[in-house]
């Protein structure tokens, strides 16, 4: 097992798990054809097979936006965590 050094963030964080789930969910939903391979219930005369897939286009867009925002926040937190340490190191060297 690898140990995480003091002060560093682990590679797998809760935010990254949520990002992965947001990106995987649409693939699972579309690859599981048995869940939507039927015509009923129809919506506005459109068979379930079609409107379910079109609904997932919108859901996928929303999930991708959520994943992107979480990823940006995670990267910003990692960058901010590294930056103060570098500044402290440079201050220590100049004394």
Major beta-sheet overview: none
Shape type? elongated
Number of helices: 2
Using the CA coordinates, give the radius of gyration.
22 Å
Residue share in β-strands = under 5%
State the helicity in percent bands.
Answer: 55-70%
Low-confidence blocks of residues: none
Kindly name the structural category.
mainly alpha
Number of strands: 0
SSE order, one letter for each helix or strand: HH
Distance between the termini: 38 Å
Mean pLDDT: 84
Mind explaining what this structure looks like?
There is one protein chain. With 95 residues, the protein is an all-alpha fold. 68% of the residues lie in helices and 0% in strands. Helix 1 runs antiparallel to helix 2. The longest helix is centred in the last third of the chain and has 47 residues, at 48-94. The chain starts with 13 loop residues before the first helix and ends with a helix.
Secondary-structure topology with pairs:
Blueprint (H helix, E strand, L loop, with lengths): L13 H18 L16 H47 L1
What is the compact description of this entry?
The protein has 95 residues and is mainly alpha-helical. The chain is 68% helix and 0% strand.
What are its keywords?
2 helices; 95 residues; single chain; mainly alpha
């Amino acid at each position: 097992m690898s140990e995480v050094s003091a002060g560093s963030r682990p590679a797998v964080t809760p935010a990254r798990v949520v990002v992965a789930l947001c990106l995987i969910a649409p693939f699972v939903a579309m690859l599981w054809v048995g869940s939507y391979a039927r015509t009923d219930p129809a919506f506005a005369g459109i068979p379930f097979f079609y409107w379910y897939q079109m609904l997932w286009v919108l859901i996928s867009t929303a999930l991708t936006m959520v994943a992107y925002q979480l990823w940006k926040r995670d990267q910003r937190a990692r960058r901010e965590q590294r930056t103060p340490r570098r500044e402290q190191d440079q201050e220590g060297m100049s004394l």
